Amino acid sequence: MKTTLATIAVLVMALSWTSEAVQVEENGLSFSLEGVIRLQELTESSGARQQSPRLRAGTGSVCADPMLPQEFLPLCRQRGASASLARLAMVPRDVCEICAFAACTGC
Question: Hey, how many other C-beta atoms are within 10 angstroms of the C-beta on 41?
Answer without folding.
Answer: 14
